[in-house]
Amino acid sequence: MSLLAYGNNTLAVEITNVSNHGVWLLAHDKELFMSYEDFPWFKDQTISSITNVEEQHNGHFYWPDIDIDLTQKMIESPENFPLKAKIIN
Fold this sequence. Notes:
Elements: E1 13-18, E2 22-27, E3 30-35, H1 47-51, E4 54-57, E5 60-63, E6 68-71, H2 72-76
Antiparallel strand pairs: 1-2, 2-3, 4-5, 5-6
């Protein structure tokens, strides 16, 4: 007997707001804020690329259009993850 589940991922995740200050992500009835200061990769992206987010598994989010991987812990406590990739222009 196989315990693998087949079909679509039903985990709910969505972007609820994009502003001049940052991005709000709603996951499992919890809203998480990502400021551009802590998450600069989102600042100059299109709305389409920001809203295209997938939850790879519980608490692990991926934006395929901009190749960003973040966990809920990283979003909730960015001060605990001081190493950041730099944006190359």
